[in-house]
TrEMBL record, chain A:
<dbReference type="InterPro" id="IPR019519">
    <property type="entry name" value="Elp5"/>
</dbReference>
<feature type="compositionally biased region" description="Basic and acidic residues">
    <location>
        <begin position="333"/>
        <end position="352"/>
    </location>
</feature>
<protein>
    <recommendedName>
        <fullName>Elongator complex protein 5</fullName>
    </recommendedName>
</protein>
<feature type="compositionally biased region" description="Basic and acidic residues">
    <location>
        <begin position="310"/>
        <end position="321"/>
    </location>
</feature>
<dbReference type="GO" id="GO:0005634">
    <property type="term" value="C:nucleus"/>
</dbReference>
<comment type="similarity">
    <text>Belongs to the ELP5 family.</text>
</comment>
<dbReference type="GO" id="GO:0033588">
    <property type="term" value="C:elongator holoenzyme complex"/>
</dbReference>
<dbReference type="Pfam" id="PF10483">
    <property type="entry name" value="Elong_Iki1"/>
</dbReference>
<feature type="region of interest" description="Disordered">
    <location>
        <begin position="306"/>
        <end position="370"/>
    </location>
</feature>
UniProtKB/TrEMBL annotation, chain B:
<dbReference type="GO" id="GO:0033588">
    <property type="term" value="C:elongator holoenzyme complex"/>
</dbReference>
<comment type="pathway">
    <text>tRNA modification; 5-methoxycarbonylmethyl-2-thiouridine-tRNA biosynthesis.</text>
</comment>
<protein>
    <submittedName>
        <fullName>Elongator complex protein 6</fullName>
    </submittedName>
</protein>
<dbReference type="InterPro" id="IPR018627">
    <property type="entry name" value="ELP6"/>
</dbReference>
<dbReference type="GO" id="GO:0002098">
    <property type="term" value="P:tRNA wobble uridine modification"/>
</dbReference>
<comment type="similarity">
    <text>Belongs to the ELP6 family.</text>
</comment>
<dbReference type="InterPro" id="IPR027417">
    <property type="entry name" value="P-loop_NTPase"/>
</dbReference>
<dbReference type="Pfam" id="PF09807">
    <property type="entry name" value="ELP6"/>
</dbReference>
Length: 370, 252
């Protein structure tokens, strides 16, 4: 359901006069070692291109080569995608020394060699979007893999400005990007979350204390589980300000991604805490109420009198005058009617002296004459 | 080959990686250099292979001595053109004429030309490997500029997709242990396809076991293998001319 909502939002684009919807896809090393996020990224690309509604994609490739993304997509989608190659030579280290031939790149791949100049970067993306629009595609989505790489070459405000400009542009119907949360400060992540309308984060199924310094030998099973499964938490911001939260489970099988709903967190926690035995160790509501009404032996005298919890420091008569003493009437009223006072054993301890200190060193048997 | 039947080879897919980035991590208590030496020997043992070794830590004689005991003659490999050894003990990316960026650009282009030359020779090298020892010294050479080191590694990693060569880098992880956010280490872990971590035993020092090795083989998205095992953990003993790998309690 979450994945369907995301794809629908990206595909539908924005209403006139509004910014384009933007998805921030977050991952980190513990979850699940940063490989599933690319599976989700590719899944979103394939979903957008396969809807048959004229959606095209401008893919900005930083992390992997453009040919890698093309190899993942069906050949039928290749006319609907344009790639901006920021992977091969972003700083012109190659082209300055060994200029590539003009016919080097395939038709749908544009090489970018001056990543440090963001206005040129923006104009390159818009040029590709216009090119797709000229071929009859009504909607153009821009996908960036990933903004983490962009932030190494440009300051945060410039990158945010670029993303906002893309959202405002008439040729761009939607936008999504990938970011590695453990490579940035929390305020950087928050900045990207603020300008996005959808936030999807990948969390590990099994939380490990510290991935980088973890004692892996003790947590291999957990790490293996994190490889095949992950939590897919989605936060959708509605136009009216309402926020919708969705949590699903993600399963990676042979490169394909499957989403499934998960039980609520509280029920999962409760199920994990209760040991699985053959006996019924849970209480019904009536049993809980009865347990709450039970008066413990030390809480009553059994004769309807006030509770006297003697602490050895005051005389009994003083405690009887104390208005703070507790009285429980329920049980005592029943017992009074039965006149069982003579049958109940009582212990009255009267101290020798009010001056006697508790835990006195004096041996009480000292006065015995044996 | 009998050597590729050990646990390390199994964890790496029963063959040396092609087109992948391998990160070897170690610490002061347990050096991971033996993994680099072992992989160097295995890479040079292949038919028509070519290795570019970027040595910032030790001179050629050091590696030659170690590999000779393991049955590999580095001098002969270098003479035959199978090994391009870059001895950069005093390497500093910044100079009077160049910025740090220019210094790394020159180093990268030297590596790239060497790889392209190996691919274009009459006896075309089928397997090309770039080895770097080690990243922490690259950071020193960059005057502490993490970004320049990452740019250099990014360009080296582009060679893995363009020329199907593999990048194998050694990194001392505990250099970053005092940092609140070891970003360079995290960047490397995001970049790598295979992680090999050498660590001491949980129980402390031992005479017969020198440490434990953890291999995380992440695989690729278009990997046809079923969602099987990706993480291995086993122990090792470094001998005079070889390394023995075994599961705890199964050492012969």
């Amino acid at each position: 359901m979450a994945e369907g909502l995301i794809v629908r939002s990206l595909r539908d684009g924005s209403l006139p006069g509004e910014h384009a919807p933007a998805l921030c896809l977050e991952d980190s090393l513990p979850s699940p070692l940063a490989s599933h996020s690319h599976a989700v990224f590719r899944h979103l690309l394939a979903s957008l291109l396969s809807t048959g509604t004229g959606t095209a994609v401008v893919l900005v490739a930083f992390h992997r080569s453009p040919s890698f993304y093309l190899s993942l997509l069906s050949p039928t989608f290749r006319n609907s995608i344009r790639l901006l190659d920021c992977y091969s030579d972003p700083l012109a280290w190659k082209s300055n020394h060994h200029p590539p031939p003009s016919s080097h790149s395939p038709q749908n791949i544009t090489l970018l060699t001056n990543l440090n100049h963001l206005p040129h970067f923006l104009s390159s993306i818009l040029h590709l979007a216009k090119d797709l629009g000229a071929q009859g595609h009504d909607r153009v989505t821009v996908a960036i893999d990933s903004v983490t790489h962009m932030l190494r070459h440009a300051p945060l405000p410039s990158v945010l400005q670029l993303l906002t400009n893309l959202r405002c542009h008439e040729k761009i119907s939607s936008l999504f990007w990938l970011i590695h949360t453990d490579l940035h400060e929390p305020k950087v992540i928050s900045s990207f979350e603020y300008i996005s309308t959808m936030i999807a984060s990948l969390q590990p199924i099994v939380q490990l204390p510290d991935y980088a310094n973890a004692n892996i030998s003790a947590s291999i099973t957990s790490l293996e589980e994190n490889y095949s499964n992950a939590k897919f938490n989605v936060r959708l911001k509605r136009r009216n300000g309402r926020v919708k939260l969705l949590c699903e489970e993600l399963l990676i099988e042979q490169g394909s991604v499957k989403f499934s709903s998960v039980p609520s967190v509280s029920s999962v926690v409760a199920q994990n805490l209760i040991p699985k035995v053959q006996f019924n160790i849970q209480l019904s509501d009536k049993e809980r109420m009865d347990r709450a009404n039970v008066v413990l032996p030390f809480e009553h005298q059994g004769n309807g009198q006030n509770i006297e919890i003697y602490d050895g420091r005051r005389s009994l008569s003083e405690s009887q005058k104390d208005p703070s003493s507790i009285k429980i009437g329920g049980l005592s009223e029943q017992k009074r009617g039965n006149n069982n006072k003579s049958e109940k054993g009582e212990i009255h301890y009267i101290r020798d002296s009010d001056d006697e200190q508790p835990d006195s060193d004096e041996d009480p048997d000292d006065d015995l004459d044996i | 080959m009998a050597e590729l039947c050990d646990l390390l080879a199994e964890a790496m897919g029963h063959s040396l990686p092609v087109g992948k980035v391998v990160l070897i991590g170690d610490c002061v208590e347990t050096s991971g250099a033996f993994v680099l030496h072992l992989l160097l020997k295995r890479c040079l043992s292949l038919d028509s292979s070519f290795v570019v070794f970027v040595a910032l830590s030790h001179p050629f004689s050091h590696y030659d001595r170690i590999l000779r005991k393991m049955g590999c003659n580095l001098s002969a490999q270098k003479k035959n053109g199978n090994l391009h050894f870059l001895e950069l003990l005093d390497f500093s990316a910044r100079s009077k004429e160049n910025s740090v960026d220019d210094g790394f650009c020159k180093l990268y282009n030297e590596i790239r030309k060497s790889v392209e030359a190996a691919r274009s020779k009459d006896t075309k090298a089928s397997c090309v490997y770039i080895m770097i020892d080690d990243i922490s010294l690259l950071e020193i050479a960059a005057d502490g500029s993490e970004n320049d080191v990452l740019n250099f590694l990014h360009y080296c990693s582009t060679l893995t997709s363009e020329t199907d060569c593999s990048l194998i880098i050694l990194n001392h992880e505990d250099v970053y242990s005092s940092e609140d956010a070891p970003r360079l280490l995290a960047h490397l872990q995001h970049l790598s396809d295979i992680e090999i971590r050498a660590a001491p035993l949980n129980t402390g020092l031992a005479a017969d076991v020198h440490g434990q090795l953890t291999v995380i083989n992440k695989g690729l998205l278009n990997d046809d293998r079923r969602s099987g095992r990706r993480i291995w953990n086993f122990q090792f003993k470094v001998k005079e001319n070889s390394v023995e790998f075994f599961y705890p309690g199964s050492q012969h």
